[in-house]
Amino acid sequence: MIRAYLKERRSWIVMMLALQGLGLFIAAVDPMIPVLSMLYVAFLSTLLFVIFLVFRYYKETRFYKSLLQREHNLDMTTIADASSPLERIVAESLTGEIEQLRQDAAMNRLLLEQEKDELLAWIHEVKTPLTAMRLMMDRMQHDPVKAQLHVEWLRLHHLLDQQLHQKRLPFMENDLYIDAVNLEDIVVQEIKTLQAWCIQKGLGFDIQLAVTEVLSDAKWLSFILRQLLSNAVKYSEQADITILSEQRRQHTVLLIRDAGMGIDPKDLPRIFDKGFTSTTEHQNGAATGMGLYLAKKAAQSLHIAIDAASTPGEGTTFTLTFPKRNEFVTTQSM
User: Fold this and answer.
1) pLDDT above 80 (res 46)
2) pLDDT tens digit string along 206-256?
3) pLDDT value for 319
4) How far is CA 185 from the centre of its chain?
5) Which of helix, strand or coil describes residue 217?
6) Distance of alpha carbon 312 from alpha carbon 211, whole angstroms
7) Sheet holding 240-248, edge to edge
8) What percent of the chain has pLDDT over 70?
9) Any stretches that span the bilayer, and where are they (predicted)?
10) CATH of segment(s) 140-333
11) pLDDT the model gives residue 77
12) Which helix (H) or strand (E) holds 213?
């Protein structure tokens, strides 16, 4: 604390030394002024200045030292210095409550970690029967029942996938592997997983990718596109979904455009909020309001700007703007 105090007062010290040096210099060049007298004056004034600094140091740092002691000792100094039994009782009660709150917070963190691990383990366990169901459906004959089962299986699979990525999202930085990613491969793969749903709804895709390579994480980029494509399929009826990429101001831009019901203007600023479903389709109990929220959070970690534009009754366009290669490398190295 002494070093910090002297650093704050260095302008005073420099000014004082400069004045003393100026006085001695004048005495040295002016024969009318005795040098020894000026040395005596400089010594006394410097001594007084040092005493002043010491006095101000103890006066100004006394309060901050007491705060540090309270922080480390949980206000034990206040308890010892309490002047009345009532003050002592109150101080002891507050100290006990603070310690209890700290213990409760540590216990809650431990319980949350255990709950997260148990949920992740449960999700992985559920994936096993889902895989078995998929194999059984593949062996079924082509009929309407198989198509309907496939669609419901796909919805369940996406809900579990959302839960899995939601729990991984806080630790997403530990799971990133940034490399050159082929956009066409990821888009086609995600469309294949939605194939049964699209056939049932009579939807097609118009893919026009002028730029096919971006710098990103393939797994998390697939998750983002999965949320946007499933959202487009969900709210579209018998129309093509357009997917195109282009170069804008040295940024790669990917657009996903549907011709669905669109988004109400008053809902548009809130569609990426956690838990927000819709005001026009508020009765839809199947909506969770998590897909676009998770896509936005994942996009932020990948430094991808995600935006939406919509006209009610005409459709919605989601835009992904990827960072420049040098911008991404600079951000990752900070």
Assistant:
1) yes
2) 999 999 999 999 999 999 999 999 989 988 887 889 999 999 888 999 999
3) 95
4) 28
5) coil
6) 29
7) 204-209, 240-248, 251-258, 315-321, 305-311
8) 84
9) 12-29, 35-58
10) 3.30.565.10
11) 47
12) strand 213-216
Task: Tell me the Ramachandran region of residue 250: left when phi exceeds 0, alpha when psi lies from -120 to 50, beta otherwise.
Answer: left
pLDDT score of 300 more than 80: yes
Q: Is there a contact between 210 and 245 (Cβ–Cβ < 8 Å)?
A: yes
Length of the chain: 334
Burial of 226 (0-12, 13-18, 19+ CB in 10 A): buried
Nearest to 238 by CA among 264, 199, 208: 199
**According to the model, what pLDDT value does residue 334 have?**
45
The DSSP-derived string for 119-156 is HHHHHHHHHHHHHHHHHHHHTS-SSHHHHHHHHHHHHH
Q: How far apart are CA 253 and CA 211, in angstroms?
A: 8
Q: Quick one: pLDDT at residue 258?
A: 92
**Centroid of chain to Cα 153:** 32
- Tell me which H or E stretch contains 264: none
Contact 219, 228 (CB under 8 A): no
Residue 326 pLDDT > 70: no
Residue ranges of domains in the chain: 2-73, 140-333
DSSP 237-256: -SSEEEEEEEEETTEEEEEE
- In order, the DSSP letters of 55-109 are HHHHHHHHHHHHHHHHHHHTTHHHHHT-SSHHHHHHHHHHHHHHHHHHHHHHHHH
Alpha-carbon distance of 284 to 160, in angstroms, equals 19
250-261 tens-digit pLDDT: 899 999 999 888
Taking the C-alpha atoms of residue 286 and residue 234, their distance in angstroms, rounded to an integer, is: 11
